[in-house]
Design goal:
single chain, 228 residues, alpha/beta, Rossmann fold, Arc Repressor Mutant, subunit A, five-stranded parallel sheet, four-stranded antiparallel sheet, 8 helices, 21% strand, transcription regulation, transcription
């Protein structure tokens, strides 16, 4: 898999590139936001994952993420020292698929890379079904992966859509955390649990319907169908 590593620290990039190469990744190193955007031109061969450090010298990492998402659907994993939920939600709102908080374990990083790449490959292999889901004012178009509330489009990341679509399959039914992680992230890795919480919070914020997804303590989540 080709991986775009966006990291301004050459020593960090060299060490990480060596680790990624040992695990079969073909790494392209971009030292700035502008270099990253130039590497993602439409005529390029394409990358499987973008690993984006937010501490860049020329542009804010969040801004770079937004620009990347406008030109490609390639999964983006943010690397940040900011561990608060608001910062993570902000990154997801801009189109990031996942995040890793510094300092991180290399095994954790590899697990997240493989998780987002497996999900992308699964979507491409299975394609979309010709159905839609209507939940009161919420409309979910599965073939085009579009969501609207009262007719207003809502931009979701890949995993936010997958999470919402999964819960919408059976409104009122509780989905266990382990089941959600398995079906949305295609992994049983325990560290994904925190990512799930952030994605749920982001969905509630974007849809402006905090009560739509109910937390069932100690078990998981369920979708509470709103009134039409």
């Amino acid at each position: 898999m080709r991986l775009l590593l966006v990291e301004d620290d050459n020593h960090v990039a060299a060490a990480l590139s060596a680790v990624l190469a040992r695990h079969g990744f073909d790494v392209t190193h971009a030292r700035s936001g502008e270099e990253a955007l130039q590497a993602l031109v439409p005529e390029s061969d394409g990358f499987g994952v973008v690993l984006l450090d937010l501490g860049l010298p020329d542009q804010d990492g969040y801004e770079v993420c937004g620009k990347i998402r406008k030109r490609t659907s390639t999964p983006v994993i943010m690397v940040t020292a900011r561990s608060d939920v608001r910062s993570r939600i902000h990154g997801l709102n801009l189109g990031a698929d996942d995040y890793v908080v510094k300092p991180y374990d290399t095994g954790e990083l590899l697990a997240r890379i493989h998780a987002v790449s497996r999900r992308t490959a699964h979507e491409e292999a299975t394609g979309a079904t010709e159905t839609r889901v209507l939940l009161g004012p919420v409309r979910i178009e599965l073939p085009t992966r579009q969501v609207s509330v009262n007719g207003t489009p809502v931009q979701l990341t890949r995993k936010e859509f997958d999470l919402l679509a999964l819960l919408a399959q059976r409104p009122g039914v509780v989905f266990r955390r382990e089941q959600i992680i398995s079906e949305v992230w295609r992994t049983s890795w325990e560290g994904t649990g925190r990512t799930l919480e952030v994605h749920v919070a982001s969905l509630r914020s974007k849809l402006r319907m905090p009560a739509l997804i109910e937390t069932v303590r100690g078990v998981g989540y369920r979708l509470v169908a709103p009134a039409a």
